[in-house]
Design goal:
single chain; alpha+beta; 3-stranded antiparallel sheet; 8 helices; about 25% helix
Length: about 290
């Protein structure tokens, strides 16, 4: 197994490994160490099926058990723990333009951290490219540890103790999406998360941002959202961002505790894009973790 940095201080590529085979203990340790050092890791040319992707993810830690989607009964993937990051309907055809799932999935174009809206948020996400469009559809990643490092001392002191509420309702409202069922509104009740986290593997501080943030405790909402927008603009400056251009069968893994990411547009009206994501759950809610 070979690990080398590519394009950015927080991104690496791992080659000379076949993820279709069970990981050895030494490989698990090496992957975790690479994630702690970099935060985004690319495994090129991994022609996995669903069972192999599931087994790989499960070997790295406990998986999230539920999908965060609307119309959860309209799913085409074999595992509840596998998220369908595509524009495809249950029969494999392209979703209708007015499909509620398509409108909801447009939220992936916003900067976010996976599952920050869950009481115990995500650790790693692993996205595998089965079918990619001929152009567009890149995924961008932002380094939240570097963003913290470059904040002024005054801003660090200001935001360090703050707690934010996260919800899918908040992120989708930015797009004008409000077509939630009563049960979905219950499922997406806002949860509190620290705005500043200490990344356990590296010991570095990180700004925990996402479009899912809708309030900051102790601040009027307009003032709070101005602060979150200012921090997001800072943290997603080009110097902190890596853009991944997908090749078929790439598997990209990232650490949600110290990165944000977003999808970039492609012609989802005419071109198929089939991406499947597994997500590891973190050890505890952020407020229960050491600050």
């Amino acid at each position: 197994m070979r690990i080398k940095a590519i394009g950015s201080d927080f991104v690496a590529e791992i080659t000379d490994i076949d993820l279709r085979a069970p990981l050895t203990d030494a490989q698990v340790i090496a992957i975790d160490q690479a994630m702690d050092q970099y935060a985004v890791v690319v495994f090129p040319a991994q022609a996995l099926n669903d069972d192999q992707e599931f087994a790989f993810a499960q070997r790295l830690g406990p998986l999230e058990e539920t999908r965060a989607v609307v119309d959860v009964h309209k799913q085409r993937l074999p595992y509840n723990q596998m998220n369908d990051i595509s524009n495809l309907d249950v029969d494999g055809s392209i979703m209708a333009l007015d499909d509620r799932r398509r409108m909801f999935n447009l939220g992936n174009l916003l900067w976010h951290s996976d599952s920050s809206f869950k009481a115990t948020p995500a650790k790693y996400s692993m996205l595998h490219a089965r079918v990619i469009p001929p152009e567009g559809g890149n995924t961008e990643f932002a380094d939240m540890r570097a963003a913290w490092d470059r904040l002024t001392p005054e801003m660090k002191a200001h935001i360090d103790p703050l707690v934010c509420d996260h919800s899918l309702i908040y992120s989708r409202s930015q797009l004008g999406f409000d077509a939630f069922t009563e049960q979905e509104l219950i499922n997406y009740t806002p949860v509190p998360q620290r705005l500043v986290r200490r990344h356990p593997g590296s010991g570095r501080q990180s700004v925990y941002l996402a479009s899912h943030i809708g309030t900051v405790h102790g601040m009027p909402r307009p003032e709070a959202m101005v602060l979150i927008r200012e921090l997001t603009e800072h943290a997603t400056a080009r110097e902190f961002v890596y853009s991944h251009k997908w090749n078929q069968f790439d598997l990209v893994m990232w650490d949600n505790r110290c990165t944000m990411h977003r999808a970039r547009p492609y012609d989802d009206k005419h071109c198929k894009r089939d991406m499947r994501r597994m997500t590891l759950t973190d050890s505890a809610p952020t407020l229960a973790q050491p600050a």
